[in-house]
Amino acid sequence: MSIAWGSLLVVFIVSFGSAVAVVVLVAFALVALSGRATATTPDSRPALMTAGTGTAVAGVCLVAAAAIVLYGLYIIVA
After folding, report:
1. How many angstroms separate the Cα of 47 from the Cα of each of 4, 34, 66?
2. Neighbours of 33 (CB within 10 A)
3. Would you list the domain boundaries of the chain?
4. Structural contact between residues 21 and 67, judged by C-beta atoms closer than 8 angstroms
5. How many C-beta atoms lie closer than 10 Å to residue 61's C-beta?
6. Residue 46 pLDDT > 90, yes or no?
7. In which region does residue 19 sit, left (phi positive, over 0), alpha (psi from -120 to 50) or beta (all else)?
8. Rounded distance, CA 32 to CA 35, Å?
């Protein structure tokens, strides 16, 4: 029995990259959704984006993260 180290390395790199991508996309979605919160302190800076833009960015990020997860599940099942 031998181990195909090259294939194992490819699987590791792809799985690590997709895991990081999903985490980053969900984090961006949370940051974009936090733009909807109203500022309560008087010294706070203005928001970088409007509530509608933040919601749209969050939606795109969550759809992309879901697509990555669903494609991974498709590869596992197929």
Report:
1. 51, 9, 27
2. 17
3. 26-38+45-78
4. no
5. 20
6. no
7. alpha
8. 6
